[in-house]
């Protein structure tokens, strides 16, 4: 990427603020922005409250304009485990529902720093466990129709939930979609094992400093950040995981760790597809639905939901733009 292009994309970088001090302001700004982003139409949804280990967790359910699949996408929002909620992700979830033809259930898990690890994960686990064990109670015909989906920190939660379900001997989801997920604990420019952190960690949409702020709030104890439920790449046993789609963004510092997790899943015997969206920045799933990265991502997501894993792509190079299917 040449200097002019990088300078232009830098205009879309997250504001350089002290997230540890200003996360409350960021939350309020995100909610206002979500309301402003859809002024031309109302987004229909049904909101309910589910019990998760004795805690009440709000879940917002979106129906597509045209229901084309029986799948229910259980969605965990991004925001570094610190920002974001079902309100700020309402436009994105409405888009997910319409472009996949699936019902989408967005989980409003507790946020750090008020509720550090594992509290938000526990909220999500309580919801997932109930749905997988008794889907009919939520109006879902078959647990096989439940797909775990998350972006960024939400992708981290989806991966961690699948690991925890297997660890505790519960039935796991059959499929998961991880959108530019956090899978590792080290995002420092000097020590990260991933080239994408050094290439894109300073002046684009998401920065190394911002990710480290999020970790400071989500997992204050640095030693606990190596827990596989925080950093799934640290897991020594990735067997028995769901069929997985990993979607990464080319110009994202999280790119390489997301793809590394996909390859690690494949080496453990799981069915995995990895797709890198060219020219995309972190968080692109919240762009307008007509944008090229969004259209490309949903073409891949819909193919995945239809079980169209391309068998002729087994030798694709996940280090370069494009896609890879592995078993």
Describe this structure in words.
The chain has one domain: Rossmann fold. The chain has nine helices and nine strands. The protein has helices at 3-10, 19-36, 90-100, 119-133, 153-167, 195-200, 208-218, 255-267, 292-305; strands at 46-52, 55-62, 72-76, 103-107, 146-151, 175-179, 243-251, 272-281, 322-326. It has a nine-stranded mixed β-sheet, with helices on both faces. The radius of gyration is 18 Å and the shape is globular.
Quick take:
With 327 residues, the protein is α/β, with parallel strands linked by helices. The protein contains 9 helices and 9 strands.
Strand-pairing-aware structural class: alpha/beta
Strand content: 15-25%
Shape: globular
Helical content band: 25-40%
Identify low-pLDDT runs: 310-321
Q: Major sheet: size, sense and barrel closure? A: 9 strands, mixed
Give the secondary structure arrangement, pairings included.
Blueprint: H1 3-10, H2 19-36, E1 46-52, E2 55-62, E3 72-76, H3 90-100, E4 103-107, H4 119-133, E5 146-151, H5 153-167, E6 175-179, H6 195-200, H7 208-218, E7 243-251, H8 255-267, E8 272-281, H9 292-305, E9 322-326
Parallel strand pairs: 3-4, 3-5, 5-6, 6-7, 7-8
Antiparallel strand pairs: 1-2, 2-4, 8-9
Helix pairs in contact: 4-5
Keywords: Hydrolase
GO molecular function, one term: hydrolase activity
Protein name: Alpha/beta hydrolase
Core attributes:
single chain, 327 residues, alpha/beta, Rossmann fold, 9 helices, 34% helix
């Amino acid at each position: 990427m040449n200097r002019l292009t990088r300078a232009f994309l830098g205009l879309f970088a997250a504001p350089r603020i002290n997230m540890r001090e200003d996360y409350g302001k960021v939350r309020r700004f995100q909610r206002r922005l979500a309301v402003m982003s859809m002024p031309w139409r109302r987004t229909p949804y049904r909101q309910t409250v589910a019990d998760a280990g004795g805690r009440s967790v709000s879940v917002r359910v979106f129906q597509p304009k045209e229901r084309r699949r029986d799948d229910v996408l259980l969605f965990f929002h991004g925001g570094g485990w610190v920002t974001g909620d079902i309100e700020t992700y309402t436009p994105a979830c409405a888009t997910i529902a319409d472009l996949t033809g699936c019902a989408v259930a967005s989980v409003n898990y507790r946020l750090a720093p008020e509720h550090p690890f594992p509290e938000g994960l526990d909220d999500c686990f309580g919801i997932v466990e109930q749905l997988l064990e008794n889907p009919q109670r939520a109006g879902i015909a078959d647990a096989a129709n439940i797909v775990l989906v998350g972006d960024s920190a939400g992708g981290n939660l989806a991966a961690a939930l699948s690991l925890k379900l297997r660890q505790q001997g519960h039935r796991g989801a059959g499929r998961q979609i991880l959108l530019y997920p956090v899978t590792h604990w080290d995002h420092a420019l000097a020590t990260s094992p991933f080239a994408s952190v050094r290439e894109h960690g300073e002046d684009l949409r998401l920065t190394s400093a911002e990710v480290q702020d999020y970790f400071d709030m989500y997992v204050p104890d640095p030693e606990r950040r190596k827990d596989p439920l925080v950093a799934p790449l640290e897991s020594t046993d990735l067997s028995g995981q769901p069929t997985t789609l990993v979607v990464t963004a080319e110009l994202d510092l999280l790119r390489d760790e997301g793809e590394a997790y996909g390859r690690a899943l494949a080496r453990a015997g799981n069915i995995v597809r990895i797709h890198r969206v060219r020219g995309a920045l972190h968080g692109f799933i919240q762009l307008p639905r007509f944008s090229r990265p969004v259209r490309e991502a949903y073409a891949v997501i819909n193919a995945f939901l239809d079980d169209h894993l391309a068998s002729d792509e087994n030798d694709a190079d996940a280090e370069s733009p494009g896609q890879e299917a592995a078993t």
